[in-house]
Amino acid sequence: MKRVVVNGANGFIASNFIHELLSQGYEVIALVRSENDLLSKQKMVKALKEVSNAEDLRYENLHVYNYALLETDFSLTAKSLTDIFDRDVDYFHFAANLKFSEKKKEEIFSTNVNGVENSIKVFLKYASTSSRFFFISTAYSCGNTTSVFEERFYSNEDISSFRNYYEQSKRYAENIIKGYIDNKSLNAYIIRPSQVVGNSKTGVTKTDFGIFDFTKRISRLAFRYPGESIRIKADSEATQNLIPIDTIVHYLMHTVSNAELPRIMNFVAKTSMKNSDIINCISDEIPITIIPNKVLERETMSSLERLLDISMSFTGHYCETNINFETTNIDKLITTRGNEITYKSLQMMIGYFIHNSQKNLKPLNAYSYEESEADNY
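Above: the chain's sequence. Below: its structure in token form.
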């Protein structure tokens, strides 16, 4: 069975992917950032138990290494790397910094651009020429485009063309890879997921990114101030492209099992969901009325509305989007499409998420925005 190497392996998408790989008998090399190999293995096993709801999983095909993304040879020994790459592998680069603000620009680009280039260098140094390098980018490397985002490379642009530095860093990383494809014969592929949510069949949701970050924050307010009405700055007719984690894993497994692949694949939903439907799903689960208002001005906000608005410094930029994504390449690759998000499945996810997040509610004075940590894909 094929060997698959995954860095940033304990993140949300990566750990779900690894769970399925192990379930199907693949050998997995997981690269996890920690203090030592033992702690890295503990982090990986914990992540796998989290996504599997503690069901039994066989670990004999899982090998975990502690690594440093930005260090030469990942701070691994030559023997370890020779062992990891001693046969053809599919190498998946999931490691990413999900922060977004200008004050974190250097950190974002260090992980998301320099880290990718270092990963390529390790791959080219140790992997066979027939091994494959997969970069997990984002469909939102599209930036502020109003055109269909095609499955092709786009040139680097100034930050004004993007909603945040995270998006810009992913575009730059894609073009680093393009340079290695053109000049060093790197056998690489770009995968662009849109906003990844919970499991479409079970409703189990283990991510607090995107709409679930907003859900977490509004549910905390509802817990403290039930019966309130809160306006948010959002266009009710705008859309979010939500793709279930089970569908993402389904697509990723196809990339592993297919020998011939398109260079770039947009892993996105065919149909986006309106903000109004998302808001209704959330409102059904909490004792607060949410009122979208696309022209809401800060000076007219109540204190609760201002508090929520500050915490939406990331998600707020996606409340007025209607992005169209090309799916030609993924349609050619996968004849059986994965599950799409429906109103019912989103209700299940939000209900599950709110029920579980309320177990660990913090006092309101600790309610501040914290950007996501690295290796959280």
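Residues 201-240+272-321+341-366 form one domain.
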